[in-house]
């Protein structure tokens, strides 16, 4: 099972109770885990994306794998109408209109399953909108949830020999927007 079917099944089977996202096409049917890191009152889910193809690349420095890997991923919206590229920064760019957001790293909230990356809440620190009201223009926070894979390589590295190692991962990305933009 892959793609949206796997995502829907995973969301339906997850443990614990859930809060349901806003009933909009971009989030319809997405169930936000109760323990998901969220920005709090005054924000709503603007869109939910899932990694369709992603790697985290670790660099060998002084005999150890880097703690902050470089992402390279393609994300698709749940409604199938939008694609984002996720790259170093962390940064997300809309393939539809070129709008880009850059977020500030945040401390981990929680990790799930063996080999999974921590769940995060990232604060959007920069907006680069190629067009007025770009697809990502209103995004204020990004939650990284339901991570699988992407943990640092389990073997030691040798500086000068092992320079980088890409590890596959998957995750859900929840893009939060203000309830009342412009106020």
Automatic annotation (TrEMBL):
Residues 1-21 form the signal peptide. Residues 69-98 are annotated as: Disordered. InterPro entries: DUF3455 (IPR021851). It holds the Pfam family DUF3455. Keywords: Signal. PANTHER family: CONSERVED FUNGAL PROTEIN (AFU_ORTHOLOGUE AFUA_1G14230), MALATE DEHYDROGENASE (AFU_ORTHOLOGUE AFUA_2G13800). This is Secreted protein.
